[in-house]
Task: structure prediction
Amino acid sequence: MGAVRDVPVHPEVEPLAFLLGTWSGEGHGEYPNSKPFDYGEEIRVWHVGKPYLGYASRTWALDDGRPMHSELGYWRLKEGRVELAVTHPTGVVEIEDGELDGMQVRLATTAVAMTPTAKSVTRLERDLKCTGSLLTYELRMAAVDQPLQYHLSAQLTRA
Result:
């Protein structure tokens, strides 16, 4: 999966083009009833000339390299609003909506769907900021009967 050669970014998602590329770095996570953890992450964002950007993230434990989490989705920009649709291998699908301010994005779920065996997730919020070749984010989550609270943050650099 990657950008199609010689195809320009679709004008509808041009304001999100700062996300394009492969980003890698490290993050930290915590949540009630689990130990705090550090992780490595790679995020890939690509385009094919259509009015969306493809998105893939994978994480691994820094202590032993074991896979941790992954997600796949699509970014869109419609009527001045950023939309992110993401599916998780844990059986959760989320739809987020938010605002774009320069190279900062603030998103919050408008819908969460779960398979019958997925752990309950009721809300997610993401704040992303790009400064040159540095992408930082914070993710807050309400899940498994816990209120919305800090869950993850990372600093990634463009490859």
